[in-house]
Write a structure and sequence with these properties.
Elements (H helix, E strand, L loop, with lengths): L2 H18 L38 H4 L3 H13 L1 H21 L5 E15 L8 H10 L5 E17 L4 H67 L5 H35 L11 H4 L13 H6 L2 H22 L4 E12 L12 E10 L7 H67 L5 H35 L6
Helix pairs in contact: 3-6, 4-6, 6-7, 6-10, 6-12, 7-12, 10-11, 11-12
Length: 487
């Protein structure tokens, strides 16, 4: 093939590429209407502002307790679930880079090749082995001649992306890569929330065990007082027995709470990617977190854009839409261009006999599917249905996200009110214990009133500790519902 023919093929290929560049099939992705409301139901306090809403606040700023920060830091480095999510992200990145290479031609090189053929002087095709063996015996040697060829060449093939099959596949892999990134963000958000909740549960158990020990000491004092009155003959042994029962009830809470503290500490260490061990607590710092926490909310549209699960659901829809386009493009012809360039000679020393030993060629192929048992059509229709299913999933994820934020906002507000009532109840029960004790000493109250007052105080103190923990966790739930924790 001479130079003019090669140039002609190249110009023709360029024209074909230009003409088919606008032949991309399929539907471009357009975000569906998500029917997002203008405000969250139940939000009567937080108005949308132009300031950065709480969901965009970095977790290191949101949390105040230094021990909790250290646990979260360790979890973000050593947690195994997060490590797996990061590996999945790298795998998706490799797949994306591989598909981008499909835009480039495939090139192979034969560095050195050689073949030898035996040809009959009467026949143009090579003899079979049996025929050759027979002829070697019966015929003179000069009836055959050997032909040797030595060559080296570079060949290439290039599939033109006429219908957008490669570009749509790239869009699909890009969406899947970003989806993997959002999945990593979702894992990180979940880990931070779980570490914070576990830590707040640990603080509640600490508060409960202090309540139990304090009540044991109070019951010891009451028991000594009743024993003195029993020795004076003022009350019966029943008073001592009932007081001792109340004391044992408070004392039995201590080993139970110690076990729960031990288990919770180990659970936190697992989340942090560490071996089981105790966890230090800074009482002065842990008591101020979330007590005066205020939240800034943005519009529901901005909030759901900040949530990794919603972003992931939409990226899955983008990938499903691109996959449907790929399946549609598979039903259309494929145009590929190939060629080769090299040298070929009877003797290796003639390789450099240019242009005598030079060879080359270029070719174009158009391949189109005709009948494949409706496989391509059914695959395309299935891909379209899968896309519709993923879109419904996106709508459901948005509905659940809006609902979760709405519930979290109301929970924070109502638990704040409930916590205030619980504090007043504790104050009242402590006052009742003091008054019952003074009245009992003065002979104006029975021992049953003292025991009842102490029992109520124990119950109200334990309830307050649980409400404080729930109040702290409600702030974490709202922070996570707003999409916080992954930045």
């Amino acid at each position: 093939m001479n130079r003019r023919k090669i140039e002609g093929w190249a110009i023709l290929a360029l024209v074909v590429v230009t003409l088919v560049a606008s032949c991309k099939v399929g539907q471009r992705y357009v975000q569906p209407d998500l029917h997002v409301p203008n405000a969250f139901r139940g939000d009567t306090v937080h108005a949308a502002t132009d300031t950065v809403h709480t969901g965009r606040v970095h977790w290191n700023t949101f949390f105040k307790d230094p021990t909790l920060k250290n646990l979260i830091d360790s979890a973000l480095v050593h947690n195994n679930d997060l490590k797996v999510a990061l590996i999945n992200l790298e795998i998706a990145n490799r797949q994306l880079r591989q598909n981008r290479a499909n835009y480039l031609p495939s090139v192979d090189a034969t560095v050195a090749g050689a073949n030898r053929q035996w040809r009959s002087s009467e026949f143009s095709s090579g003899p079979s082995s049996k025929w050759y063996d027979k002829m070697q015996k019966d015929a003179p040697q000069n009836m055959f001649m050997s032909v040797s060829q030595f060559g080296s060449e570079v060949s290439f093939s290039w599939e033109l992306d006429i219908w957008g099959k490669i570009s749509n596949r790239n869009d699909q892999l890009l969406a899947e890569y970003l989806d993997t990134f959002e999945a990593k963000n979702a894992v990180q958000t979940s880990i931070i929330a779980n570490v914070a909740k576990g830590y707040f549960n640990l603080l509640m158990l600490d508060a409960k065990i202090e309540v139990a020990k304090r009540n044991v000491r109070l019951n010891d004092s009451t028991l000594r007082m009743i024993e003195l009155q029993y020795e004076a003959g003022e009350i019966t042994a029943l008073a001592i027995q009932q007081t001792e029962s109340q004391r044992l009830l408070a004392a039995s809470l201590i080993p139970q709470l110690e076990k729960e503290i031990f288990v919770q500490e180990n659970a936190l260490r697992i989340l942090a990617g560490q071996m089981p061990d105790s966890i230090p607590r800074d009482d002065s710092a842990s008591q101020v977190f979330a007590e005066d926490m205020t939240f800034t909310l943005a519009s529901p549209v901005e909030v759901i854009r900040n949530r990794p699960d919603v972003r992931s659901a939409e990226l899955q829809l983008v990938a499903a839409n691109a996959n449907a386009n790929v399946e549609q493009a598979m039903r259309y012809p494929t145009l590929s261009i190939g060629g080769s360039l090299g040298v070929n000679a009877m003797l290796p020393k003639n390789w450099f006999n240019i242009p005598g030993a030079l060879l080359g060629g270029i070719a174009g192929d158009i391949t189109t599917p005709i009948f494949r048992n409706k496989t391509l059509k059914l695959r395309y229709e299935t891909a379209r249905l899968e896309r519709d299913k993923v879109e419904i999933g996106l709508q459901q994820t948005v509905v659940e996200a809006i609902n979760e934020v709405s519930n979290a906002v109301v929970t924070v507000e109502k638990q704040r009110e409930e916590l205030e009532y619980a504090r007043r109840r504790v104050e009242n029960s402590q006052l009742a214990v003091r008054n019952a004790t003074l009245l009992f000493k003065g002979g104006y109250a029975s021992y049953l009133e003292v025991i009842t007052a102490q029992s109520n105080a124990l119950s109200s103190d334990l309830d307050l500790a649980e409400l404080r923990q729930q109040h702290l966790q409600s702030h974490v739930d709202l922070y996570r519902a707003l999409g916080g924790g992954w930045r």
